[in-house]
């Protein structure tokens, strides 16, 4: 609840909204990204774009880099849909 109150204060009261755009893009199409992860699976794209970086860093960092890769690829997919104003509504 404390985190919700802090976000409310910063975003709605103080009007610091630019940094929250990352979350707006995700929040506009949450069902789409859930289904896309289940149907498409981003494994091959993730290995293509982030596998080399994961190989350069110590082995302990590989899961972190791959997780960042999944989020980045999913966010870019959602951003393209956001720019084209494509939203899945139920």
In short:
This protein is mostly helical.
Low-pLDDT runs:
none
SS-based class? mainly alpha
The description of the largest β-sheet is: none
Topology, number of strands = 0
Total helical elements: 5
Helix content class:
over 70%
Q: What does the overall shape look like?
A: globular
- Arithmetic mean pLDDT: 90
Please tell me about this protein's structure:
With about 90 residues, the protein is mainly alpha-helical. The chain has a domain at about 25-85. About 75% of the residues lie in helices and about 0% in strands. It contains 5 helices and no strands. Helix 2 packs across helix 5 (about 60-85) and helix 4 (about 45-55) crosses helix 5. It is globular. About 5% of the residues are buried.
Fold blueprint:
Layout: H1 2-13, H2 21-28, H3 30-39, H4 43-56, H5 62-83
What brief labels describe this structure?
single chain, 90 residues, mainly alpha, globular
